[in-house]
Amino acid sequence: MKKFILLFALLFTVSSAFISCRDEADKGDRVEEVTDELEERGDEIEDEYDDMEDDLEDEMEEMEDDGM
Model confidence over 6-49: pLDDT tens digits? Predict the structure, then answer.
């Protein structure tokens, strides 16, 4: 009976080690994908902000030219 319990404990330990290692690799890949996606979205937002800023400056220049 004691050998059976020890065998079961050993199998549980080995199986949980393999499962946890596999999950860690998947999480690392997901984190990398999310980080890349966030960087891309941040770049897109920055580009949109720059475009809006340029448009606003153009409109202000047109208003100054029309007013004077």
Answer: 888 888 887 777 776 555 557 778 888 889 999 999 999 999 99
* Cα separation values, 59 from 21, 45, 51, Å: 57, 21, 12
Q: Strand, coil or helix: what is 68?
A: coil
Interatomic CA distance for residues 6 and 29, integer angstroms:
35
What's the rounded Cα separation, in Å, for the pair 9 and 57? 71
Consecutive H or E run containing 26:
helix 2-67
Q: Report in angstroms the alpha-carbon separations of 62 from 18, 23, 37.
A: 67, 58, 38
